[in-house]
Amino acid sequence: MATPTLEDVAQAAGVSVSTASRVFTGTAKVRGDKHAAVMRAAEQLGYRPNAIARSLASGRSLLIGVLTQDISSPFYGEVLRGIEQGLEGSSYSAIFASGHWRVEEEASALHGLMGRPVDGLIVLGGHTPDERLAAMAAKVPLIAVGRSVRGLEDQCLRIDNVQGSYDCARHLLELGHRRIAYIAGPESHRDACERLQGFQRALADWKVEANPSLIVEGDFLEPSGLLAVESLFARGALFSAVMAANDQMAYGARLGLYRRGIRVPEDISLVGFDDLSSSAFTTPPLTTMRQPTYEMGVAAAEAILATLGGAPLPTADFRVQLMVRESTAPTHRERQRLSPLDPRPAGPAGNGTPSPASAQASEPRPQDPPFPGERL
Amino acid sequence: MATPTLEDVAQAAGVSVSTASRVFTGTAKVRGDKHAAVMRAAEQLGYRPNAIARSLASGRSLLIGVLTQDISSPFYGEVLRGIEQGLEGSSYSAIFASGHWRVEEEASALHGLMGRPVDGLIVLGGHTPDERLAAMAAKVPLIAVGRSVRGLEDQCLRIDNVQGSYDCARHLLELGHRRIAYIAGPESHRDACERLQGFQRALADWKVEANPSLIVEGDFLEPSGLLAVESLFARGALFSAVMAANDQMAYGARLGLYRRGIRVPEDISLVGFDDLSSSAFTTPPLTTMRQPTYEMGVAAAEAILATLGGAPLPTADFRVQLMVRESTAPTHRERQRLSPLDPRPAGPAGNGTPSPASAQASEPRPQDPPFPGERL
DNA sequence: CTGAAAGCGCTTACAG
DNA sequence: CTGAAAGCGCTTACAG
């Protein structure tokens, strides 16, 4: 038998389609016995309301479009999970499209979503011009996560990248590090620029001279972190810490250090940004700035739902939080200052401005076991 | 102005809606000048065909439902990316729903997808009973990835878990390992059972006695890998290698070893399964069994498209591949056999049946630098 | 090649 | 509380 329609149900229940419709939408009271008859008929026939027909008739698609950049990104993945959670229990579902950070691809993804059309739009990052998003926002409730849109400031869920990055750098500076290599994100990313800015501001506040040769640009993916460290070594750069603009590049940097036989954090400290779920399980567990990505996804969904329900936009404040784990340690000099009697042997990198050439030597040498307690 | 409809376009172009419709669907020839007039009018009005109305009229939603388990899973993420890629260029888009490996949640996700209704269904893993999937498959083309469904064997895209796991174990056995700890997946997962089976079969072929106290069950997530290693140590188990049923648990195990100051692979070898994209960047890079997840996603999408287009189901064969990286090494005994003059000092774990108690000692001791070449 | 018309499966004023 | 009817924006035989 073909899929049963509302008409089949109404007929089986001995009521009009209007009445049958009302029991499913709940828009008006229906007498008890008729209600029951409809439910029974629906059950018996295995009736499922056709969402498409319903959308066309009601003018609402019950779909929230989500423009993401990469469906498999560990960073956006958490946001998507949050969105799913935030939509749970509502009658809306999410439909995803990926833009891969390419303006044209984002445009066509957006085009596809609007053509459905969706009842609301959540935009995660990307390079779509502000004007285009403002134009969409005029048609449909829109929330942006991880980017800001001029004129739509209160519909943008963001963290303070400058402050977050500043705090990462401060952590390193307080541990005594002065020569800090920085692996930046692509300068076309606003996040990347802001994080670089936070780093530089901290340096300035600590009266540490900025050293352009300690800054390398990556693309937010692992291999670029590895390359960055390699190029740093190739140019003979000296540093006691590496700060990466995101965790994925920090992973790559970690591998670059490992390849040279450099220990983290004994020889060189490492910090990331994002706190991906796997960052608590790297070797050593990565010190990084946590972004509340899941929470932002939930909030984005709730904000859309609120707007759709005619409620005012909920306000939320998203704080970053430094997760001090085991990839950062005081410089040797700082350790000595703190406990002059510390008997542990100083590694070749223990003076705060290590020579990578000596750190490279593959002579067996003492390995510090992790001392997490020391740094808390 | 409200969103323009086909009727607006037809009117502006001076043709009937039928004709206007034909230029957009391409279902019939339209005279050149009328075609142009319609295109121009559409352009001018900023017309976008309404996908919902189109679906209702044509009886095709142009939506492929994807039942996944966790939208943020690094494993399924790759499959989703493949599906997106495979659908690219077609007029279909994917709509995702997550089941979180819970039968009822999967049912409601499936219910939501079928109620839209979708034109095709791709199912990733999960615990939905075979009969339910068979029932869906009767209504709509269905492809399953990473699980098998009785009666739908040729619509299931799978790898040979038994063989893959066998090959991982063989790799370890050939390196001389005999006491291999195994971190299994949950026994309710078919994949988990098959991988355990492959492991045990290899042991049997090598005449290594199976040792139940070396097997711990996890849940495929990182923390369970950490717990597994801890419980192994707690019970005083002796082993020179750890094999995990997936990469995420291998990451957790890696951390457990690190916490005890145990070196990988010098003291203990470690192997995973899946080859997640970050596994090439762990410390050390993880030896693991690659699953062609992205390719399976592409193939699933293509199979659906083919079926929808009336073409026969394409056949594909998915091979796993052992990625030998740097987390596995020969046992000390095996190294000596291979090059009796190897001058490197033997670690406390070098005899193939190490004592974790001694490996635990936090005395500084020589650290082997990585020797990737040695194992190729 | 083209238009008028029916119809996709619902919802929702409108009139009782 | 309930039914008949119009309509959502398209597609697609059907007849020219």
UniProtKB/TrEMBL annotation, chains A, B:
<dbReference type="Pfam" id="PF13377">
    <property type="entry name" value="Peripla_BP_3"/>
</dbReference>
<dbReference type="GO" id="GO:0003677">
    <property type="term" value="F:DNA binding"/>
</dbReference>
<protein>
    <submittedName>
        <fullName>LacI family DNA-binding transcriptional regulator</fullName>
    </submittedName>
</protein>
<keyword id="KW-0805">Transcription regulation</keyword>
<feature type="region of interest" description="Disordered">
    <location>
        <begin position="327"/>
        <end position="376"/>
    </location>
</feature>
<feature type="compositionally biased region" description="Polar residues">
    <location>
        <begin position="352"/>
        <end position="361"/>
    </location>
</feature>
<dbReference type="InterPro" id="IPR000843">
    <property type="entry name" value="HTH_LacI"/>
</dbReference>
<feature type="compositionally biased region" description="Pro residues">
    <location>
        <begin position="367"/>
        <end position="376"/>
    </location>
</feature>
<keyword id="KW-0804">Transcription</keyword>
<dbReference type="InterPro" id="IPR010982">
    <property type="entry name" value="Lambda_DNA-bd_dom_sf"/>
</dbReference>
<dbReference type="InterPro" id="IPR046335">
    <property type="entry name" value="LacI/GalR-like_sensor"/>
</dbReference>
<keyword id="KW-0238">DNA-binding</keyword>
<feature type="domain" description="HTH lacI-type">
    <location>
        <begin position="4"/>
        <end position="58"/>
    </location>
</feature>
<dbReference type="InterPro" id="IPR028082">
    <property type="entry name" value="Peripla_BP_I"/>
</dbReference>
<keyword id="KW-0678">Repressor</keyword>
<dbReference type="Pfam" id="PF00356">
    <property type="entry name" value="LacI"/>
</dbReference>
